[in-house]
Amino acid sequence: MNKEDKLVLGGREFNSRFILGSGKYNLELIKAAVENAGAEIITLAVRRANTKDSENIMDYVPENVTLLPNTSGARDASEAVRIAHLSRELGGGDFVKVEIMKDSKYLLPDNNETIKATEILAKEGFVVLPYMYPDLYAARELENVGAAAVMPLASPIGSNRGLATKDFIQILIDEIDLPIIVDAGIGKPSEACAAMEMGASAIMCNTAIATAKDIPMMATAFKNAIEAGRSAYLAGLGRVLTRGSESMDPLTGFLRD
Amino acid sequence: MENEFLVDSDKLSEAALKRKHEIENNKSVRIDHMKFLPNMDQLESDIQDKVLENLKDIDWDSYTDADVYRALAAKTPSIEDFKALLSPAAKKHIEKMAARAKIETAKHFGNTVYLFTPLYIANYCDNYCVYCGFNCYNDIKRKKMSFEEIRHEMEVISKSGIEEILILTGESPVYSDVKYIGEACKLARKYFKNVGLEIYPVNVNDYKYLHECGADYVTVFQETYNPDKYETLHLLGNKRIFPYRFQAQERAILGGMRGVAFSALLGLTNFREDALASALHLYFLARKYPHVEYSLSCPRLRPIVNNDKINPLDVHETELCQILCAYRIFLPYVGITVSSREEKHFRDGIAKICATKISAGVSTGIGDHEEKYEAYKEEEEMESKASDFDKKESIKALQQEAVSENEECGDEQFDISDRRSFDQMYDDMAGEGLQPVLNDYIYV
């Protein structure tokens, strides 16, 4: 892959376009994500962190990996802001992924609250990556209030149901001048590849790898799929031939010179 | 090949002539065209930089058939795809472009075609734009209509059935000030459902005022997006200030206007670059102000009073058609207006592919709709009877008559090529299988 093709978030450059989500953590998964999938960003649910001394997740995260603390568990903007503050105090850095859900069945993000939290945190100097439902107006608002990227969901989190919102993610890719990171729901490498071909800037996933029979092998499959999709996007997709003949009566027959 | 724009009038005094030549020949006496004048609103906006950045280092000949095919197949064509569609390589694929454009037009506009008429209320101008019939050194009959004359013209036009009017002036804030134009808008609201403006660029507050007076669509042509070329064509007046003109649409939006229209005057310089820039000007503004309605026009250079040699150079009908199809494919949702600078066969053909708005019953002179409307009617009656040769001769005679009959009228900005009346246009469009629309926006 072209060395110059970097993912830029909050002024920081990344070579990898795979981001490991935080839902189903274990040592094997983190190791596979970093070693096999090449992940340089790993999310961390601040509120879900183990409060006991043992089994500290930080012990498993290599130093060269950027931590992306998220606000998972926040029910509204003010909780998300508090979690972000806590994360920064704990040395989690300036990156924060805003996740605000009021629905515990589908865990769908609340776009309104997400916009509010993003505005506050961006003003405070955070690099804010909001998880959102792919709605154009909400994405524009997020852009206006200072988000560093927009993270639309492909289908409900943890569902492995793939690109259910494909057409709407495409609209965000076409209309929003920020990296679009497809987050949640990607279940197969082919879906990650498809999203990258569409012009997504990166893929975040977790469950698809965590629930595979062979975790390292699936991590490798995702790495290859994401790179293939990115290359295809940069190369420019070829034309698709459609059936049917051209009009017998030319449309441009009237032109005189 | 280049146009010979500069023409001297024997009516100018020796001093005026000397001044004119100095301005034409000595760049150092002309003001800095990239610097705002003190009375001009200056917006914090990056749109101009974005557009000009995209014009850098384009090798139009580097695009290939494959690039054109890719662009035609793209679901949402990129800027790069759009360039391919404007490139020389795309010319031979014009029929395929037209087919795609027609589909896009149908998706967004059905089979409608919107009819309107322009009304020039004054032709005084403070600018010296070398290609324009209204330029301040051109010896033409000047006129500014009184409110009674405006009212009368509007009455004549509205009786024809037209529901949208586009009010135009020469660019003289002195002779046709904002107040005067505002009053004309108020009058227009009595006779028409929609009022558009094509006047000199003004500040945000003035756009706000004109919006309150009833106007809600603003058209400003940048003429050329090449700042160096722009400098050599716009020698005097406010219009000389490139960025002030560039920001006009954005100011109009901030003033509350519903829609804005753009164009370059094709034929002034590299038309591909100017077409690209016009569309990108719209594209970037639409990303910033997605609630606004947008449209593009596509004027080509035309002969003017006292200089009948001005022509659109290498922008032939095929190139114009290519540009319009490329616009439609890249920006499927925008309106495309084709003016009476183009001939009947072109307007009929292009309306079936991608144009969504065409003018009817047009005069670019000042205060002559009534005679012209009468003349059009006679013309059309004659057309239905006479042979081609007779037709041409007698139409010429009629037009001369119409103009010479009324010494009170102001001269035209440019020659028009399609003199069809509103009725004729309505019937022709319906006859082409299109649905003429007179108004699609009710003020609430």
From TrEMBL, chain B:
Biotin and thiamin synthesis-associated domain: from which residue to which, for each copy?
Answer: 297-436
**Any idea which GO molecular function terms this record carries?**
4 iron, 4 sulfur cluster binding; iron ion binding; lyase activity
* Matches recorded under InterPro entries: Aldolase_TIM, BATS_dom, rSAM, rSAM_sf, ThiH, ThiH/NoCL/HydG-like
What UniProt keywords apply to this chain's record, in alphabetical order?
4Fe-4S, Iron, Iron-sulfur, Lyase, Metal-binding, S-adenosyl-L-methionine
The coenzyme or cofactor needed here is: [4Fe-4S] cluster
Gene3D superfamilies xref list: Aldolase class I
Q: Name one Pfam family in it.
A: Radical_SAM
GO biological process terms, alphabetically, are: thiamine biosynthetic process
The name under which this protein is listed is: Tyrosine lyase ThiH
Which source organism does the UniProt entry give? Lachnospira multipara
Lineage, uppermost ranks: Bacteria, Bacillati, Bacillota, Clostridia, Lachnospirales
